[in-house]
Write a structure and sequence with these properties.
alpha+beta, Molybdopterin biosynthesis moea protein, domain 2, Molybdenum Cofactor Biosythetic Enzyme, Chain A, four-stranded antiparallel beta sheet
């Protein structure tokens, strides 16, 4: 592609690089200049314009963006993605379903490594999306790129991203109480909101005393496909009431604790073929916390391992919420609440 100023008599069919405001109208950048455009420019005593001119073997920005999108998403339905139309060298990818985004980082980085003019920007891996949420934007930065470069960028990109839809539809939230009083419904409301945006429903409310025996019985009787445990007293050890209740019911604990703040006091396990998540106290708030990262992946059918949770620590210091103006401070002798 050639770029730069040219005399008006050489500009027909070239791509206008910068918008021009004439007395009667505006000619937008990216316009393929017509004879009428050039007459209007000449009428205002302009003698040259800055343009881009495609050469043999070049692809127009829109054609290149669309071709790359089709290479990355050959099957929109199977990949849970929708490809937008092309404009100004850009094509956006949108989620066809709620869920989490799965990326092949190496292959997407390879796309961006071929030519700086060929780019794709995505949300982070395992980012939660709603239906029609934007997942990625493909942008051809120049007005055209060599077709050979586009072919190289697209070569191994097929299927490099997808949206994983939820695989469960119901969850049971078991709450424990440390006194005779029923806990506030704040925690249940926050969890219902999280599940609703993933297309899931909570089963009837279950509240039991904060004791192993009662909690164990409730876990065994839970009707939901996913079992969530929110204790009235923070779970502060792998052998504490909630993890032990899961073991007593015949389940297993695969991870206690996570390097995400807020969210440290989470545990993950299973009861038969159903996932069990012991929620940290911060899950009573709708604000983002480490439990969201685990819950969203589990709901979407991702096998979350202890190693996966350990890896969440880099980037796991989450923002303070606006309603908590002071930074978190360690209480003397305390272990935290979530």
């Amino acid at each position: 592609m050639r770029f730069g100023p040219v005399p008006l008599d050489q500009a027909e069919g070239a791509i206008l690089a910068h918008s021009l405001q004439l007395k009667a109208r505006k000619i937008a950048k990216g316009t393929e200049l017509s004879a009428a455009d050039l007459r209007d420019l000449a009428a205002e005593d302009r003698t040259e314009v800055i343009v881009a001119r495609l050469e043999p073997g070049d692809l127009h920005e829109d054609a290149a963006a669309e071709a790359l999108a089709r290479a990355i998403v050959p099957d929109e339905v199977a990949q849970g993605l929708r490809i937008s139309g092309a404009g100004a060298g850009r094509v956006n990818l949108y989620a066809r379903t709620c869920g989490v985004v799965q990326l092949d980082r190496a292959r997407l980085e390879a796309v961006n490594a071929v030519d700086p003019m060929i780019s794709i920007a995505t949300v982070p891996e395992y980012h939660r999306v709603d239906v029609d949420g934007m997942v990625a934007t493909i942008k051809i930065i120049a007005y055209g790129v060599p077709e050979a470069d586009l072919t190289q960028a697209a070569k191994d990109a097929s299927g490099a991203m997808r949206v994983l839809a939820p695989v469960y539809r119901t969850a049971t939230l078991i709450e424990t109480r440390v006194s005779d009083e029923t806990p506030s419904d704040k925690g249940r409301a926050a969890m219902a909101g999280r599940l609703d945006r993933m297309g899931m429903d909570l089963t009837d409310r279950v509240v039991v005393p904060h004791r192993e025996a009662e909690l164990s019985t409730a876990i065994a009787a839970a009707p939901g496909e996913v079992i969530l445990v929110l204790t009235g007293s923070a779970t502060s050890d792998p052998m504490d009431v909630a993890p032990q209740a899961l073991r007593r019911a015949g389940g297993q604990v695969t991870r206690f604790g996570m390097p995400v703040d807020p969210g440290n006091l989470l545990f993950l396990g299973s009861f038969g073929d159903r996932p069990v998540i012991g929620l940290p106290g911060c899950a009573r708030s709708p604000a983002l916390n480490g439990a969201d990262w685990v819950l969203e992946r589990v709901i979407s059918g991702v096998d979350v391992t202890s190693e996966d949770i350990a890896a969440m620590g880099v980037g796991g210091l989450l923002k303070e919420i606006p309603t908590r103006p002071m930074p978190r401070r360690a209480a003397p002798g305390g272990s935290g609440t979530g």
